[in-house]
């Protein structure tokens, strides 16, 4: 219910500004109409460019190998990073090249109403800028009128230019010279043209603002290009030139990179060739000085010779040892026969040994036949002794020969071993020279190969991109779209007043609607009093006409009756936060409304600092009252006065002006006074001072049954409700109810029910359908 009530309040509040909404929508729709009438229509020109995948291109093996190397991979695979190519396609450099080539900073057209219509291929003049005089060109529009076949008139207020000159003659301005060349068969006498000239940078920015390049798919390498331009044919030419210029720049970049790489390779080839010659010369010197033809074979031969001489040395040493042992054997006379199996590599010694063994053998045979004294045996002994001496001499001579041979073999063997020990160092030096020679040679051959590959790549006609769809314009303008423009205008027409109204509400600090009260406090609203257009303070009473204000007090009277029917007494205090909220006006008319039911009502004026109730009733302010009764200077029945023509209303005024109102209210005679007055009157209305200014109302609270807290529409501030909430939370004013005063019922925000036939219609001034939202 509360949510529906809040929604109704919001709708009613918005509907109260329906004229503003209608006016705003009308204005925006009108602006949209003017925009569509004078805006330059835009055509969409589109094309498709495919960035080729270099892996699928059928290049030669040499080119592919060259591309796979880090040297020219960027040259042969420009599509490897498609996002980079998108940046190139939308770069200022590329667009500026097209602007210069097509002279896009110069437009020739004519005026159609307030719109500039570019002629392009229908232009009778070809305009160029020559002899620029400044670095930064400001935009200028020249009026050109063709006077006759050979004369034109050129005007421009900014340049102070108004000249008649021959066609083809340069037009001198402060920034540059214009050259206007006629186009054959298109000159029309009396035709008026406009020549718009901007800087190249401004033209580039204009193209970039309406130019888009994006991938057709994340997995594809095709790029969709779109350009929005007011002239379809020139738009097609611009987009086509952008693609062609991109392809040309890519090709030129490939050639430039290849040329720079060829220069680098040639420099490296010269350096490597020089280094290779130096290494080969050093290797040749090393071979010559060390007599090296084939180091491996020579090393094998040297090791073989060393092994051979080593074996011969060991054989000689063995024979020398045998001869030494044999000599000792021969010198022993006990040893008769010498073994002939001993290997002695000496012919004379072998013959002597055989002769000696033969004599020993004859002697042993004949010893069996002869006695020791036999001359034959003696002769054999003498021969054996002589032959043994010869044998010892041969042994001695052979030993000397063996020693000489062994020494020579040992010397030769040491020489071979010395040469073998030098082989690793020579081989290491040889391998070092050979390695340097091999590396330099491989590098030289590699560079020669890469030079050929770079030459092939430079001469290759393979393109890194391909135009799939040529630039093509739409049949009709795509911008602006009337339906969208009108729809956006209508939406803006609603949003603007809606934003202003809500912004105003957001910034508003004063009480404006019932929702404000419900939002900031939960104190019950007991009454709602409309705005009183009359200057009369008494809004309800005998003889007064029925109005929305009087009906509001009657409704308040009814609500008050039900609120007080269970109370022992009917004392009501009326107060507010600050001055000006209408608490005294509320006290006066509430009391009158109660008295009209035949009840006896007493007004007590307890705003002792600024009493207004007496003067509002038309009585003199300088009459004795409450202060004199409390001070004992008068009795209550003597100072209570009747309120004019209403016999049921009486007033106990504040009394003479006093300086100590708080002390008066705290006097011991106040409580008995209220007890006495309760017995005499049906209702007592206490007009107290504002609680937000002084504390008097808190003192009075102990004597009353209910407090009516007055808030004033569009006067009471929102932050004051925090003070009201604090009063309720701490129960400083007892039972408290709110009354909203001075409501503008012609506005919105309060749910006020009809008070009788015709009043609501009169108050709101709205039609019946509008009032349905308020009930």
Topology:
Elements (H helix, E strand, L loop, with lengths): L1 H14 L2 H21 L4 E9 L9 H8 L4 H4 L5 H8 L2 H11 L3 E7 L2 E4 L6 E6 L9 E9 L2 E6 L4 E6 L4 E2 L4 E6 L9 E6 L2 H10 L1 E5 L6 E8 L2 H58 L5 H37 L15 H20 L8 H85 L5 E9 L8 H26 L6 H7 L4 E6 L17 H17 L6 E6 L6 H13 L5 E5 L7 H4 L9 H5 L5 H4 L1 E3 L2 E7 L8 H5 L4 H11 L2 E5 L8 H5 L5 E7 L7 H10 L6 E8 L15 H6 L3 H4 L4
Parallel strand pairs: 14-21, 15-19, 15-20, 16-18, 16-19, 20-21
Antiparallel strand pairs: 1-12, 1-13, 2-3, 2-10, 4-9, 5-6, 5-10, 6-7, 8-9, 11-12, 17-18
Describe the structure.
The protein is α/β, with parallel strands linked by helices and 775 residues long. Among the domains are: 16-39 and 480-507; 44-66 and 79-248, no CATH class; 514-753, 3-Layer(aba) Sandwich (Rossmann fold), CATH 3.40.50. Helix 22 links the parallel strand 20 and strand 21. Helix 2 (18-38) runs antiparallel to helix 12 and helix 8 runs antiparallel to helix 11. The longest helix is centred in the middle third of the chain and has 85 residues, at 375-459. The protein is elongated and about 215 Å long. This is non-specific protein-tyrosine kinase. InterPro entries: AAA_dom, Bact_polysacc_biosynth/exp, GNVR, P-loop_NTPase, Wzc-like_C. Its EC number is 2.7.10.2.
């Amino acid at each position: 219910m509360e949510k529906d009530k809040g929604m109704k309040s919001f709708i009613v509040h918005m509907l109260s500004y329906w004229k503003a909404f209608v006016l705003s929508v009308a204005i925006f729709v009108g602006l949209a109409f003017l925009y569509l009438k004078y805006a330059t229509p835009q055509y969409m020109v589109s094309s498709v460019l495919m960035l080729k995948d270099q892996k699928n291109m059928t290049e030669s093996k040499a080119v592919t190998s060259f591309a796979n190397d880090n040297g020219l991979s960027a040259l042969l695979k420009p599509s490897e990073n498609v996002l980079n190519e998108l940046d190139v396609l939308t770069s200022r450099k590329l667009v500026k090249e097209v602007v210069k080539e097509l002279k896009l900073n110069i437009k020739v057209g004519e005026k159609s109403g307030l719109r500039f219509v570019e002629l392009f291929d229908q232009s009778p003049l070809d305009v160029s800028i020559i002899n620029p005089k400044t670095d930064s060109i400001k935009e200028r529009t020249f009026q050109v009128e063709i006077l006759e076949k050979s004369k034109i008139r050129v005007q421009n207020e900014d340049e102070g230019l108004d000249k008649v000159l021959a066609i083809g003659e340069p037009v001198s301005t402060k920034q540059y010279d214009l050259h206007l060349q006629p186009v054959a068969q298109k000159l029309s006498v009396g035709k008026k043209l406009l020549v718009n000239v901007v800087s190249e940078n401004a033209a580039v920015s204009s193209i970039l603002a309406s130019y888009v390049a994006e991938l057709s798919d994340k997995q594809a390498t095709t790029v969709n290009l779109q350009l929005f331009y007011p002239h379809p044919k020139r738009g097609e030419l611009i987009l086509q030139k952008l693609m062609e210029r991109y392809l040309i720049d890519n090709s030129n970049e490939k050639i430039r990179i290849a040329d720079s790489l060829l220069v680098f390779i040639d420099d490296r080839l010269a350096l490597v060739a020089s280094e290779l010659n130096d290494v080969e010369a050093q290797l040749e010197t090393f071979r010559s000085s060390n007599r090296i033809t084939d180091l491996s074979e020579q090393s094998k031969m040297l090791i073989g010779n060393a092994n051979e001489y080593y074996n011969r040395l060991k054989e000689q040493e063995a024979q020398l040892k045998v001869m030494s042992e044999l000599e000792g054997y021969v010198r022993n006379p006990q040893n008769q026969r010498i073994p002939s199996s001993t290997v002695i590599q000496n012919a004379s010694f072998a013959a002597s040994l055989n002769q000696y063994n033969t004599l020993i053998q004859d002697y042993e045979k004949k010893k069996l036949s002869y006695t020791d004294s036999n001359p034959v045996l003696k002769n054999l002994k003498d021969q054996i002794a002589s032959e043994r001496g010869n044998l010892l001499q041969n042994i001695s001579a052979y030993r000397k020969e063996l020693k000489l041979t062994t020494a020579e073999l040992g010397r030769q063997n040491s020489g071979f071993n010395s040469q073998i020990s030098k082989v690793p160092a020579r081989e290491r030096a040889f391998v070092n020279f050979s390695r340097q020679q091999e590396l330099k040679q491989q590098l030289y051959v590699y560079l020669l190969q890469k030079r050929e590959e770079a030459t092939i790549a430079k001469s290759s006609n393979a393109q890194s991109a391909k135009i799939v769809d040529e630039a093509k314009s739409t049949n009709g303008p795509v911008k602006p779209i009337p339906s969208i423009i009108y729809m956006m205008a209508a939406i803006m027409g609603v949003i603007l007043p809606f934003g202003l109204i809500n912004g105003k509400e957001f910034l508003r600090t004063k009480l404006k609607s019932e929702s404000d009260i419900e939002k900031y406090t939960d104190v019950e609203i007991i009454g709602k009093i409309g705005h009183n257009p009359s200057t009369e303070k008494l809004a309800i009473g005998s003889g007064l006409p029925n109005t929305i204000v009087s009906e509001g007090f009657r409704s308040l009277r009814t609500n008050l009756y039900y609120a007080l029917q269970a109370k022992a007494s009917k004392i009501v205090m009326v107060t507010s936060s600050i001055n000006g909220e209408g608490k005294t006006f509320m006290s006066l008319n509430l009391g009158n409304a109660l008295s009209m039911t035949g009840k006896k009502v007493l007004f007590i004026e307890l705003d002792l600092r600024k009493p207004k109730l007496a003067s509002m009733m038309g009585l003199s302010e300088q009459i004795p009252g409450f202060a004199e009764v409390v001070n004992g200077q008068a009795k209550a029945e003597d100072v209570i006065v009747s309120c004019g023509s209403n016999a049921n209303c009486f007033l106990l005024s504040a009394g003479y002006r006093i300086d100590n109102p708080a002390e008066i209210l705290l006097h011991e005679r106040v409580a008995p006074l209220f007890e006495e007055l309760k017995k005499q009157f049906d209702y007592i209305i206490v007009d107290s001072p504002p609680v937000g200014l002084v504390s008097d109302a808190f003192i009075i609270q102990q004597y009353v049954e209910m407090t009516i807290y007055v808030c004033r529409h569009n006067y009471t501030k929102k932050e004051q409700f925090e003070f009201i909430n604090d009063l309720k939370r701490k129960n400083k004013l007892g039972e408290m109810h709110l009354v909203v005063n001075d409501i503008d019922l012609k506005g919105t925000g309060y749910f006020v029910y009809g008070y009788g036939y015709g009043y609501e219609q009169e108050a709101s001034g709205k039609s019946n359908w509008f009032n349905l939202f308020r009930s």
